[in-house]
Design brief:
The protein is an alpha+beta fold and 642 residues long. The protein contains 18 helices and 23 strands.
Amino acid sequence: MHILTKVHHKNVGRLIGYCYKTCLINVERNAEHASSVATERVLCFEYTQSGSLDKHIADEPACRLDWSTLYKIIKGTCEGLNHLLSAHQKPILHLDLTPANIFLVKGKTPKIIGFGLWRLIDSTKMHQTKIFKETHGYMPPEYVDTGFISNKFDVFSLGAIIIKLMAGNMGYSRCFEMSPKDFIQHVSDNCTKRLHAMPGYSPYEIDILRVSTCVEIALRCVDEDREKRPCIEDIVHKLGELEARVKTIMLLPHDHRQSLLTDLDPGLYSPKESRLYMSHKLAQDGAVTGYKSNWSRIDSQSGATSTAHGQSKDLSLQTGSIPQYMSLQHLRDITNNFSDERIIGRGGFYVVYKGVQQNAKMVAVKKLVHPTVSTQVEFEKEVKLLMKLKHPNIVQQVGYCYETQNLYMVHEGKCIFAEYTHTLLCLELLKNGSLDKYISAACSGLDWHGRCKIIEGVSYGLEYLHEQSKEPILHLDLKPANILLDVNMLPKITDFGLSRLFDQSRTIQTANTSGTLGYMAPEYLRGIITPMSDIFSLGVIILEVITGHRDYPYDIRSSSKEFIEHELQNWRNRLQKEPGSRSLETDCQQIKKCIQIGLICVNPERTKRPTMKKIIDMLEGLESTDWYINNQLSSHEIQEEL
């Protein structure tokens, strides 16, 4: 009773009340009458209708609980045991953790009961004792052999319960006959068959990930060497990490007010005359992909109401597509097991594969190779950043994979589990590839109109990163190879591995600079990071797109004024030869403006470079570029500074 008054957890049996009554009674002993104290002890527990868990241990897969229920039971039992072993000044050992001592509430929520053998234990010590009641199959070998008790006692029992739930009593025996790798595969295959057989069930990849994780945990729990068993905190943490990967759904920020009003018929629901009340009910479990809205119009004078049932709203249209978790096996399938024939690009620490999904839609699968701590951090940073970004000129994330496998191997003569994390990113596939293929002036099909759209698109994308995001984001590796083109030759910025969230109130100085020479600002080479680092890179890209040559501003051989005139003449000659060309002078004015913007952006003095807002204003004609004349630099000055 005393122990139960200290325990309060949703997965531990709740003591509702108790009775402890003593009274004097007359007894007869050896023909003599005497008074004796009689004690009545009664405990009152919450009632569970579904009975104990031992009813659900079955060798036949068809007789077992469905996997979703099993997983909730396993997870709940782990959390309850964690509360006992970790949540008090001294760990509370159950010492009789069996399916018969786990009751189910409404068939799904497990509650640990049966504390008759419990102990408070000093976690730094081992105890040697003998328990009179033994439940064979759930006792760890060190207790059976020598009577030793430690906080790994209940962990062994937990592992046995998990295996029996997932594989039955016969499966529990087989786990000691098979290698861990084979047993995990055996259980996973059986569960996969059951999941496939379920009508209307689609996201089985998530459950397969849960299955393999639970079996791996259970096998470690029943290790004969108690030192190799995981502690209960690590088990709960592992399951928590798994749930975080499964449940993470990023809904991008979106102001619904404007779209909600403009979606209405103005004749019936004018915002000037009506008050609108909207109620949303979103799913609690799983990915939210859309919602329905019901509208009520209230007449302020009569109080009459009318309701209009809205159409289903697709969240992917309003907030950007929702990145979904993709299993490693799924990504292997769509890339033909990461075949060399599917490689469409490479980076410093990653390879990009073309993936073909079942609906024939193609995606780009970016796989981290030869991971180190630093490359893993960069890759994870890119995944998190892309989840937050929604803009027509930023490449969109379709899905991601972050899957940790426990590899069973021999190391220095010992069998160990080694963790290996597979990190992959699934992005929209842009068929025209990267901008660096189209820089050359000789590239056919990319006229001034197309080049202008690219300059504007990249500028809009960079403005979004710098100005419109909640926290400014610096790309720090902006170059033609990191700008992809869709079927309409619209640019999308990609590769955020080096990006940083930036505090506008300060300048960052670092000893670690990474990037691409020729596109890195002079101050960035010295370890100084500001938004102007990206502005410099943008300027180089603008000049390369206009001139059709690389390595600007290094190749400028004359003053800025002469350089502008030279490039204008080149374009004038080219435009005159193009059939159906638009107004020559209009195009030349636009070309001149873009060259001026590019030259201002590559100013060696970062304080003289424009902000992205100013660049957009100049591109849209909201601000004149005349002030550029006052900041004009000759190529000689640029060359000296660089």
